[in-house]
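Exercise 7b. Backbone tokens:
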């Protein structure tokens, strides 16, 4: 590792706890929004899989990560594509751990049979909540859901 890369790593580690706390608060706020939206079928996160799972997470974890899975209700390829395309503050990518919010659908246009064989839902998405303002992310998700389902709720 070069001296410059070492310095950059140390500099980033100094702010890591603050960034992780901010992302944890944001992901919990986003989950609260998603839980109340009828277009969301399921959320995959340690706080969302029943009381037993939440108790285990509270016992063994010091905090919650900002990566979650979401299943869109009654999703089809058009809904998935419309939803992802309508997002303005989520980048279509899979480099978890950065500062920007990311989204990645498990459906890639031609792998529906493979998803079913693996027990994955067609409308399943992976989301990483970054350091953007939570209200902006929630509003972005809401407007993208509205466009994808063409319903104002």
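Sequence design result:
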């Amino acid at each position: 590792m070069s001296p410059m890369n070492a310095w950059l790593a140390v500099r980033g580690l100094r702010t890591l706890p603050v960034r992780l706390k901010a992302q944890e608060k944001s992901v919990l706020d986003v989950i609260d929004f998603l839980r109340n939206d009828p277009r969301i079928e399921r959320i995959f996160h340690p706080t969302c899989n029943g009381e037993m799972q939440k108790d285990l997470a509270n016992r063994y974890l010091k905090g919650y990560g900002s990566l979650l899975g979401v299943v869109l209700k009654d999703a089809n390829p058009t809904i998935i594509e419309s939803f992802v395309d309508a997002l303005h503050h989520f980048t279509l990518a899979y480099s978890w751990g950065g500062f920007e919010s990311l989204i990645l659908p498990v459906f890639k246009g031609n792998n529906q049979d493979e998803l079913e064989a693996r027990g994955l839902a067609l409308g399943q998405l992976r989301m990483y909540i970054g350091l953007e303002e939570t209200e902006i992310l929630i509003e972005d998700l809401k407007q993208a859901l509205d466009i994808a389902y063409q319903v104002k709720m």
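Instructor comment: The chain has five helices and five strands. The first strand starts at residue 40 and ends at 44.
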